[in-house]
TrEMBL record:
<keyword id="KW-0067">ATP-binding</keyword>
<dbReference type="GO" id="GO:0004595">
    <property type="term" value="F:pantetheine-phosphate adenylyltransferase activity"/>
</dbReference>
<feature type="binding site">
    <location>
        <position position="86"/>
    </location>
    <ligand>
        <name>substrate</name>
    </ligand>
</feature>
<feature type="binding site">
    <location>
        <begin position="122"/>
        <end position="128"/>
    </location>
    <ligand>
        <name>ATP</name>
    </ligand>
</feature>
<keyword id="KW-0808">Transferase</keyword>
<keyword id="KW-0547">Nucleotide-binding</keyword>
<feature type="binding site">
    <location>
        <position position="72"/>
    </location>
    <ligand>
        <name>substrate</name>
    </ligand>
</feature>
<keyword id="KW-0173">Coenzyme A biosynthesis</keyword>
<keyword id="KW-0548">Nucleotidyltransferase</keyword>
<comment type="function">
    <text>Reversibly transfers an adenylyl group from ATP to 4'-phosphopantetheine, yielding dephospho-CoA (dPCoA) and pyrophosphate.</text>
</comment>
<keyword id="KW-0460">Magnesium</keyword>
<feature type="binding site">
    <location>
        <begin position="87"/>
        <end position="89"/>
    </location>
    <ligand>
        <name>ATP</name>
    </ligand>
</feature>
<feature type="binding site">
    <location>
        <begin position="8"/>
        <end position="9"/>
    </location>
    <ligand>
        <name>ATP</name>
    </ligand>
</feature>
<dbReference type="Pfam" id="PF01467">
    <property type="entry name" value="CTP_transf_like"/>
</dbReference>
<feature type="site" description="Transition state stabilizer">
    <location>
        <position position="16"/>
    </location>
</feature>
<dbReference type="GO" id="GO:0005737">
    <property type="term" value="C:cytoplasm"/>
</dbReference>
<feature type="binding site">
    <location>
        <position position="16"/>
    </location>
    <ligand>
        <name>ATP</name>
    </ligand>
</feature>
Length: 160
């Protein structure tokens, strides 16, 4: 089976990496697809998010990094892959994820969304929280790989 793991990855965290690693053991090929949404302000550009993801996933031979704009369902058709992977951290993720999965299925009935339950040690982790801690100079070494930590430090070194 091939699968697509879509998201913003702004930036990639250990929470994402955990999902990528665990999923890569269950599928033949995993496409991590970075959403390019110009109307949603991101800290890292699309190129930067892709670069960071490529760097931290290079040890997984069956993981590919790509990007998409617009509808995920259109991208799914383009890549000829109808299995979507999403991570579930807490009950709070469930409502939104359920809505997205049902909307995607409504658009294309072939699409199935599979949920990977977060490892308990990363259940609290999100890109937003990491950026918030980094912005105020907090230690983020247990949340993100070294290259991402450095990239975040560079982003916020001049203050907010
Ligand atoms: N710590 C985590 N454990 C499990 N799944 C996660 C974790 N962090 C993110 N995910 C999942 O990864 C996918 C992509 O998420 P996304 O790019 O929105 O990251 P995020 O950390 O939620 O960022 P943001 O804070 O900007 O929403 C989603 O399915 C999300 O639920
Ligand atoms: Mg999110």
């Amino acid at each position: 089976m091939r699968a697509i793991y879509p998201g913003s990855f702004d930036p990639v965290t250990y929470g994402h990496l955990d999902i990528i690693e665990r999923t890569s053991k269950k599928v033949e090929h995993l496409i991590v697809a970075v959403l390019n949404n110009p109307s949603k302000k991101s800290v890292f550009s699309l190129e930067e998010r892709i670069e960071l993801l490529k760097g931290v996933t290079k040890e997984f031979p069956n993981v590919e990094i790509d990007f998409f704009s617009g509808l995920l369902t259109d991208y799914a058709i383009k890549r000829n892959c109808t299995t979507m992977i999403r991570g579930l951290r807490a009950v709070s993720d469930f409502e939104y994820e359920m809505q997205m999965a049902l909307v995607n299925k409504k658009i294309n009935t072939e699409i199935e969304t599979l949920f990977m339950v977060s490892s308990s040690k990363y259940a609290y982790l999100s890109s937003s929280i990491v950026k918030e801690v980094a912005m105020f100079g907090g230690n983020i070494s247990c949340f993100v790989p070294k290259v991402v930590e450095q990239a975040l430090k560079n982003k916020f070194k001049g203050g907010i």
